[in-house]
Amino acid sequence: MPRENKTKYAVLGLLTYAPMSGYDVKRVYAHSLGNFWSESYGAIYPILKRLEEEGFATRQVERQTGKPDRNVYTITDLGREELHRWLAQPPDPVRERVEVLLKLFHGWEVGPAAMIEHVKQTRAEHVALLERYTHYDEVMTRDNEPPSPYWLMTVSCGQHTSRAYIEWCDETIAKLEQLPAEPRAGAENWNPTDHQDLEASE
């Protein structure tokens, strides 16, 4: 059974704030949901078309002088009911794909130098994210818009996550700097299949 694309609910939720064109959705998505729900912006338009086909949104064509026509989508009562149904369901378990951890896991193949650079890059990314989240926090607190307490909770999660990553990066870099420089140091005779105690109990 194929996994459901939850991004349709991300887009449907944005339409509860105001009717939007595909460009509007992409712009708002980039500065809000995109911080914690990754999706190709090219997928936004097919999702909007699907929402219209399912009766969850309507489309109105706005004529523009000297510009392409603007398709504006509005959530329907049925769409709001579907969004409420999904919001009431428990979220799926988190299944992360963190490339820096994947590289680090196999890092003994090349030694610590390359891994140190990867972790430094990750640290710099989270320092930048933390600055962005702090800006969002200041703007939302200042504007005091009705949904902002809920938005601020997502910002707070981002702040906590980035602070934890920065702390982990500092700790990991210090440990990597203490490792032997040569690849596979200490790993020559280690076989993970010999360690059944690493397996989680069923």
Summarize the structure.
The protein has 202 residues and is mainly alpha-helical. It has two domains: 82 residues, Orthogonal Bundle (Arc Repressor Mutant, subunit A); 87 residues.
Secondary structure blueprint with pairings:
Elements: H1 7-14, E1 20-21, H2 22-30, H3 44-53, E2 57-62, E3 70-75, H4 77-88, H5 99-105, H6 112-143, H7 148-176
Antiparallel strand pairs: 1-3, 2-3
List its salient traits.
7% strand, Arc Repressor Mutant, subunit A, mainly alpha, 2 domains, three-stranded antiparallel β-sheet, 202 residues, single chain
Task: Walk me through this protein's architecture.
By secondary structure, this protein is mainly alpha-helical. It has 2 domains: 7-88, Orthogonal Bundle (Arc Repressor Mutant, subunit A); 99-185. 53% of the residues lie in helices and 7% in strands. The chain is built from 7 helices and 3 strands. The chain has helices at 7-14, 22-30, 44-53, 77-88, 99-105, 112-143, 148-176, and strands at residues 20-21, 57-62, 70-75. A 3-stranded antiparallel beta sheet has the order 1-3-2. A hairpin with a 7-residue loop joins strand 2 (57-62) and strand 3 (70-75). The two termini are 24 Å apart.
